[in-house]
Amino acid sequence: MPSSYNVVNGRPYINGVAYVTVTDAEAPAKKITGYRQGVVVVVGTAENAVPASYPLDTPVLITGTPAEVADIGDVGMLKIFADTAFTNGHRQTVAFVRVAEGVDDAATIDNIVGGVDVDNLPLGLEVLKSMASTTGVEPGIVIVPHFSTEAAVQAKLQTLLPIIHAIGFVDTVQGDASETADNLRTAATALNDKRLTMVYPNAKTDVDASAWTPGSIFAALAESKTAPHVSSSNTPLPDIVALSQPVDYQSDASTAMANQINEKGVATFVNYGGTYRLWGIRCTATDAADQNRHWVRINDKIRNGALDIMMQRHGANIDADFANYALARMQSLLLNMIDNKEITGGTAWLDGEVNTAKMWLQGKFTVDHDFGRYGSGEQVFIIGRVNDTYYDDIANQAVGA
User: Residue 150, CB half-sphere, CA atoms under 13 Å: how many?
Assistant: First the structure.
């Protein structure tokens, strides 16, 4: 593992606090002893929305009140999300980003991918980079229902999500011969992203509805109900009443479609005990060290907590009080997460190699930490052994032996 000095020295200039992730951790050679969670963001069309309530290319926070839903209009992906998320009195804070409906799908996709306008203002997905500063709320789970089947949208999400420290769900192409386990596995492997999970198939909350709701909507809702350190797999989705395509699932059959696609990071929905539930722990990352979706989220939570701690001291003189504050608060964050069983362990320390008078004079201060992650009960084996010697006891008792 690179030393803290090598990690920090030579990094590009920032005026703020940076969180640097180092994998393959080992115990530090030398120690000097002495949160917030993003919301679901939905990017899509709503052609008949009230412009004053939902201006284009602007994150709008809503909780699903009847007035908010009415202003969305009666068509478009934002309307479909609202009808799905806010039924039966459900309420939760989400952010809607309305994009312009193009003359065709290609034009709409361009509007979703976005960029900047002539005044250098962000458009489409680009607005999420400044969402925290404009709304005070950070994006946590990003979906682009229906249009996320497109390569251009997926590519944009792959570059955007690491910047905003969010995860995303993308829909899969449906309605043609591509709906096979092998094709879905191939598509997920090609995506290969620890912040993206594919979802198959679409679903309905009303059997009489003419259209199917993109699966990414249900997956995002399940994820939003789950703490960052826990997998959202097995989260009940009682509003689902039907799937657009059957997904065979037998818990102990490796050839079942659900198991086949789950292995490569395609989440699905299974009906167990009369209730549909999200099924799939993994993201599309091919590296086993990154394959669990909630591992990314817990890392993001620690990052957010650490940034909150150090932003309180940003700009202050670096001295013993500064160092003691950083060390004590960081260790407190980790201990609290250990007590809550969010991480298996963690330690904070100040590395003497990087925290020198020369570095401090340059305004560079570093607090290190490590942490351990929990595994999820994904592959659980129950071993049954036939032991007919118990019969001997019965026979012996019968004959009086």
Answer: 17
DSSP character string of 98-129: EE---SSHHHHHHHHH-EE-TTS-EEGGGGGG
pLDDT at 28: 43
* Domain ranges for the chain: 39-290
Query: What's the confidence (pLDDT) of residue 41?
Result: 98
* Parallel/antiparallel/unpaired status of strands 368-372 and 345-349: antiparallel
Using alpha carbons, select from 164, 166, 293, 161 the residue that is nearest to residue 230: 293
The reported pLDDT for the residue numbered 241 is 94
According to DSSP, the β-strands at 368-372 and 203-204 are unpaired
Give the pLDDT confidence of 95-114 residue by residue, as tens digits. Answer: 999 999 999 999 999 999 99
Q: In this model, does residue 67 exceed pLDDT 90? A: no
Separate counts of helices (H) and strands (E) for the chain: 13, 14
Q: Looking at residue 218, what DSSP letter applies?
A: H
CB neighbour list of residue 236: distance below 8 Å, 6 or more residues apart? 275, 276, 277
Closest CA to 139 of 154, 116, 157, 113: 157
Rounded to whole angstroms, what are the CA distances from 127 to 13, 97, 122, 131, 155? 24, 8, 5, 6, 16
In angstroms, rounded to a whole number, what is the distance separating the alpha carbons of residues 84 and 96? Answer: 14
pTM of the model: 0.89
Where does the pLDDT of residue 248 fall: very low under 50, low under 70, confident under 90, or very high at 90 and above? Answer: very high
Nearest to 206 by CA among 64, 88, 66, 42: 88
Q: What is the mean pLDDT of residues 158-163?
A: 98
Q: pLDDT tier at 11 (50, 70, 90 boundaries)?
A: low
Gap between the Cα atoms of 295 and 374, Å rounded: 8
CB neighbours of residue 72 within 10 Å = 24
Q: How many whole angstroms separate alpha carbon 66 and alpha carbon 78?
A: 14
Contact 125, 59 (CB under 8 A): no
Annotate 35-94 with three-state secondary structure: CCCCEEEEEEECCCCCCCCCCECCEEEECCCHHHHHHCCCCCHHHHHHHHHCHHHCCCCE
Tokens of 360: 């401090």
Query: Is the pLDDT reported for residue 13 higher than 60?
Result: no
